[in-house]
Structure formats: structure tokens, C-alpha cells
DUF1439 domain-containing protein
Amino acid sequence: MRLPSMLLYTVLAATSLGLAGTASAALQRHDDGFSVGIEQITPHLQQQFPWQQALIEGVLEVSLQRPELQLLDDRAQLAVDISTLSLGQRSDLGRAQVSSKLRLDPHKGAVYLEQPQLIGFTLADGRSVPVDAQTAQMINQVLASYASQQPVYTLPAAYAAMAAGVDSLQIENGWLRVRMAR
């Protein structure tokens, strides 16, 4: 048995006894790893928002807020409101629908969006509209910047210590499934 597997079983045993804290106890444990539900991910994700980025320093800033995440098939679906602040004027643009794979950063024990792509847009008045290529590219660049800086979820400390031993990260039946190397 390699060290990561031994550490996994120690942590799983500790969480079964309630020694690793309530956040860890909410995870579903498996023989080869664990699963995290949307109920555990959502509070962490909401703490990351609102998120702002200056597109033109002092002139144009974009803001993302009100995230809603779903774990569907092999991709995460994120809906987020987008607004801009330009020369002191705020404009609520609408709600972006984003599709993305997920990746685990083993050094940070955190899960990030990987290559998020805009798949739909609803204006602030509720109308769905097609997005031109230039606007989609700008939104995708903002999403890529967000994805590189902010985790969707950070593993509880006891599990984050094992992140280097992760074999795979998948979405299964609406859960984020983490499998450890054996």
C-alpha cells in the first residue's frame, strides 16, 4: 500500500468518527476516494463573488455575481450575472451560461474551472440573445481569468493534504467524484 492510499484510509476513518470536522463529514466516502455534492460546493463558490476585473484600468471594469453551479454529465454548468462599470456608470448586461470541465490543483487542494466557454446569454430583461464572436471572445477571456484565479471549491484540509495522490476528478450523477491513486 503506497503512502497516499494509507493516508486516504486514515482520513476516511477519521471522518467516519467525526474527527475531521463537519465539512469533511458531509462528503460521501468511497473505497477509492470521495464525492462532493453541490451542497458543499455552493457555499464556497458564493464566497468568491462578486468578482471584478479591470478591462481598461480606471475606465472599464467587469463584474461577475450570483453564481449558480450544476454538475451535469462530464461538465460543470455555471450561470453568472455580468455587469460593467464604465466611467462610474453601472450596466447590468445579463446572465451568462458557461460550460466547463473541472481540474484539481494538487498543490492548492482546490478545484478550478478548466477552459470555461460561454454557451448562452440572457439579457437583464430576460430575453435570450445570440452573442457575436467578439463579445463571446471577451466574455470567455474574462471567464478564463476568473477560472485561473478563483477555485470553484477548496477541499477540506484533511483531504487537501492528499490532493497529490488524486488519480482522477470526474462528475458522476451530479457529484464531483475524486478517485485516489492506489
